[in-house]
């Protein structure tokens, strides 16, 4: 029998945590810890000495101060929907997971100032709902929005399906409240649009995956709610056409484009096969499809403009067929098909994920060279790329038979080859999922020595004892 992981902690540590949080909020039992030790896809596992579940910023600060005194490593965790293991403890059984789920209040909303302040453990859906109740839009949108939490979204600088218009998560932040590595609280919850007072410290924490500080609350930028929205699903002969169609759409609609997603035919087939209520939107079958959405704040006119655009695009040979969602229900079905595509594919086998970006114009070359590369590396895999082509971001995913054992060495080989290709095309080895525990070696190999040195110096300055999420982003 394995010794209880709580024995890996300094004497008195857990008792002191229980005095701060109450004993029910300190989990040491293996069964209670289990959901915090494995990622959503059951692909990345670790072992925690304990799981701590604070409910307030002050409680987070008190337990981090305690951890700092005892040099106990703390792994912050939100909704546990990350895809690179950034919220999962390592295998040592010596780290404690700090779950932010208990900090789940929307503290205030100002519809005229267009901001709201939410605590880290609010689900993204709860933040969207609070914005909507105030007649505004919080535009970050991801497949996991019912489960993922805003603190995790910001710590990971999440992307999603609306980046082309509204930017990544970090672009939606006006201010942060952060618990620092020594347990002090930095109250930086500003709500100003303009604030040029020296270094923009919040940027350090956004995308730092909990390795520089623990985000406990954020002031978030709200936008106008679009009054008319048009959703298009189009069949395309080739990835080149997607890039031309995007340009064609940009010339016509500019910033009204809120999503522009590309999917291989096999991804759509998997969604149709496994998602209840999802039907193929077109009679035409094609190797590639685009799901695009345009939105604006005037009450009407966009639908007619979109129909005219589709006619012109068809004439120009940029698509084979297309449909416009005729109702909210149809729109919801199209988005379910796209956003639950990855879980649908997972029903057919194991997945090697590759979240990468290149300049938009290089997408066709990425697909052509990537397909050739992966066919030789993974002959029994099916390539099923999809993603946010409007942002130059593809999920170059490979589906493998369920029976395959010991995926890790193959995953690493594939990741390395894909990263080489991406680097050759001037792209990024992580577009929106982050580095976590899965890509540190690639990062170390591909960032310049100067960049790595600066990153280490920032880490050293903010967390000199390396207690905040050690081992993510930078190798230990
Ligand atoms: O499963 C994936 O690789 C991608 C998940 C997510 O980023 C998406 O775009 O659906
Ligand atoms: Zn994505």
From TrEMBL:
Q: What is this protein called?
A: FAD-binding oxidoreductase
| Annotated family | Belongs to the FAD-binding oxidoreductase/transferase type 4 family.
> Could you list the residue ranges that cross the membrane?
none
Looking at the record, the residues that make up the FAD-binding PCMH-type domain are 44-225
Q: Which UniProt keywords apply?
A: FAD, Flavoprotein
User: What SUPFAM superfamilies is this protein classified in?
Assistant: FAD-binding/transporter-associated domain-like (SSF56176), FAD-linked oxidases, C-terminal domain (SSF55103)
Q: Which Gene3D superfamilies match?
A: 3.30.465.10, 3.30.70.2190, 3.30.70.2740, Uridine Diphospho-n-acetylenolpyruvylglucosamine Reductase, domain 2, Vanillyl-alcohol Oxidase, Chain A, domain 4
- Top-rank taxon, per record: Bacteria
Which Pfam families does this entry report, sorted A to Z?
FAD-oxidase_C (PF02913), FAD_binding_4 (PF01565)
């Amino acid at each position: 029998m394995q010794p209880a992981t709580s024995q890996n902690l300094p004497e008195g540590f857990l008792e002191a945590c229980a005095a701060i949080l109450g004993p029910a909020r300190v989990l040491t039992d293996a069964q209670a810890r289990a959901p915090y030790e494995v990622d959503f896809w059951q692909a990345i596992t670790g072992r925690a000495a304990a799981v701590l579940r604070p409910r307030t910023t002050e409680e987070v600060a008190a337990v981090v101060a305690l951890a700092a005194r005892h040099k106990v490593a703390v792994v912050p965790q939100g909704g546990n929907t990350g895809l690179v293991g950034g919220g999962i403890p390592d295998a040592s059984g010596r780290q404690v997971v700090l779950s932010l789920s208990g900090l789940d209040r929307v503290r205030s909303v100002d519809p005229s100032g267009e901001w709201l302040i939410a605590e880290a453990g609010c689900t993204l859906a709860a933040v969207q709902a609070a914005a909507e109740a105030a007649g505004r839009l919080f535009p970050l949108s991801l497949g996991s929005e019912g489960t993922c939490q805003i603190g995790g979204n910001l710590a990971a600088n999440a992307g999603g399906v609306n980046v082309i218009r509204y930017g990544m998560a970090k672009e939606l932040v006006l201010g942060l409240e952060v618990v620092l590595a020594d347990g002090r609280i930095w109250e930086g919850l500003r709500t100003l649009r303009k604030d040029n007072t020296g270094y923009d410290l919040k940027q350090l924490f956004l995308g730092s995956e909990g390795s520089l500080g623990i985000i406990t609350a954020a002031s978030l930028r709200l936008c106008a709610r679009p009054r008319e929205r048009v959703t298009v699903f189009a069949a395309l002969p080739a990835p080149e056409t997607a890039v031309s169609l995007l340009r064609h759409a940009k010339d016509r609609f500019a910033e009204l484009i809120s999503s522009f997603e590309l999917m291989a035919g096999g991804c759509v087939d998997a969604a149709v096969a496994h998602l209840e209520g999802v039907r193929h939107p077109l009679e035409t079958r094609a190797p590639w499809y685009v799901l695009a959405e345009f939105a604006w704040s005037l009450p009407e006119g966009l639908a007619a403009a979109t129909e005219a655009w589709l006619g012109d695009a068809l004439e120009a040979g940029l698509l084979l067929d297309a449909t416009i969602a005729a109702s909210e229900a149809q729109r919801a079905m199209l988005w379910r098909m796209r956003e639950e595509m990855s879980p649908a594919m997972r029903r057919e086998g194991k997945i090697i994920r590759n979240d990468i970006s290149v300049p938009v114009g290089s997408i066709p070359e990425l697909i052509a060279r990537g397909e050739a590369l992966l066919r030789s590396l993974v002959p029994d895999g099916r390539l099923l790329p999809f993603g946010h082509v409007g942002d130059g971001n593809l999920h170059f995913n490979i589906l493998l038979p369920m029976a395959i054992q010991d995926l890790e060495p193959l995953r690493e080989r594939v990741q390395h080859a894909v990263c080489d290709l991406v680097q050759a095309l001037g792209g990024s080895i992580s577009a929106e999922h982050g580095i976590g525990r899965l890509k540190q070696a690639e990062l170390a190999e591909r960032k310049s020595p100067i960049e790595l040195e600066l990153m280490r110096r920032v880490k050293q300055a903010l967390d000199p004892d390396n207690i905040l999420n050690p081992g993510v982003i930078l190798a230990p």
